[in-house]
Amino acid sequence: MESALKPFRVLAYVVGCMLLVLCVGMVLRYGFGEDAMSKIVAPIHGGLYMIYLITVMNLGMKARWSWPYMAGVMLGGTVPFLSFYVERRVTQRVQDALAAAEA
Description:
Order of helices and strands: HHHH
Protein name: DUF3817 domain-containing protein
Radius of gyration: 16 Å
Transmembrane segments: 12-28, 40-61, 67-86
Domain DUF3817: 5-91
InterPro entries: DUF3817_TM
Helix content: over 70%
Membrane topology: Multi-pass membrane protein
């Protein structure tokens, strides 16, 4: 489970940052008619989000999460700033589970 936590944490931060950049791109696109940034950032964020979903599945299967919980963690990459919150909560949950398993 510990080996799956690090890729999840990295992807949660990367996807969260890319989502914020994408939001700026969307403001530029729909507010100011400048669509160059969103055309570049949107596919990158989409690809990274797919990898994030895989890392959530990997961690969730190893941690034996329920499907609804796993789906909630997956949705963390779709709302600005939520992925940072979800990452902290998931990390704490996994570390608590690892500590309980060692005791």
